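ESCALATION

Customer reports they have been waiting on this structure for their group meeting. Please prioritize. Original submission:
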Amino acid sequence: MPIKIPDRLPAAKLLKQEQIFLMPETRAAGQDIRPLRIALLNLMPNKQATEEQFLRLIGNTPLQVEVTLLYTESRVPKHTSWEYLTEFYTSFEEIKDKRYDGLIVTGAPVERLPFEEVTYWAELTKIFDWAKNRVNSSIFICWGAQAALYHYYGVPKYPLPRKMFGVFAQRKLAPNEILLRGFDDVFFIPQSRHTEIRVEDIEKRADLAILAASDDSGAGILASRDRSLIFVTGHMEYDPDTLKTEYFRDLENGLTIDLPRNYFVSDDDPSGDVTVKWRAHSHLLFANWLNYCVYQTTPYDVNKIGEIRAQ
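Update from on-call: job pushed to the front of the queue and completed.
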C-alpha cells in the first residue's frame, strides 16, 4: 500500500530500506484518487519506534493511505521533543471536525492506573466519542483496547498477580470471520501488560464477539458486531526485539520481571536469539482490517463517513 506520510518523517528512511512503498506528498498530490484517511493516535513513549511498527503493517496492500499522526495535548511526552511533535504530529483539536476512514489507537504504559486517573483520560474519551461518529472503523491496541472497551461498553480491567509477558498462542474462534480470513487455526500475539479483561464480562455484551482467545492470556481479538470497533489485547505490531528490550529495561530499573514466555530460542538465555512467531499474522490482520472493515465499507464521499452506521 502506498503510504502518504510527511516527506521528512524519520520513519520514512527505514521503511524505504524495507521496500515499503512510500509516496511523497508531492507525488500523492498529482494522483486523481481518494486515499484512505487513517489517523494514528500514538500514546506510546517512543513515538518514532511505534510509528515505524504501524506504518510497516498498513503498507502491505495496493491502496493509497494518507496517515495523520495524533498526540494528546493534555500530556506532552517526555521522550519526544516538542519540535518533533509540532513538525509531524497533529492535535485532536486540529482534526476534530474532519472524518477518517480508519483510526488506530496504540497502547500506553499507564495500565496500573484507574482509567479516570490517567492524565489525558478526558481528552481520550472525547476522541473515542468523536471516532464513533466520524471514523468508519477503529482498531485499539493493548491498553488502548482496554480503555475503549471500558468507555464504550463498561468492561472493567483487573490487575494481574504477575505481568502477562511473552508470546502466547491464540485459538481462532470464528472460522468465517473476515477479519481473520487466511489465519491459521492457531496463531501468536505478543503480550506485555499488568492487567486483563475477562471473558465473562465480554459475554454480557451482545454487541461484542471474541474472535480469538488463548488458554494462557485470555481474549486476544474482539470486535463489535458491525466491525466498526476492533480490539487487540496484545501487541501484534511489536518488532522482534521489543520484548527483549522491555525485559532488560525493567531489569535496569530494578523491577522484578520474569523472562518473556515462548520468546527466546533458549528459554533460559535472554542474551540469545528470539523466535518471531507473529509477524505474518500481524500483516494479515491489518491487511484484512483495511480491506474488509475500512475500504469495502467506507463511503467515497469523506463527508458521509459515519452516516450509514448512525442510521
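Sent to customer with the following note: The chain has a mean pLDDT of 89.
Escalation resolved.
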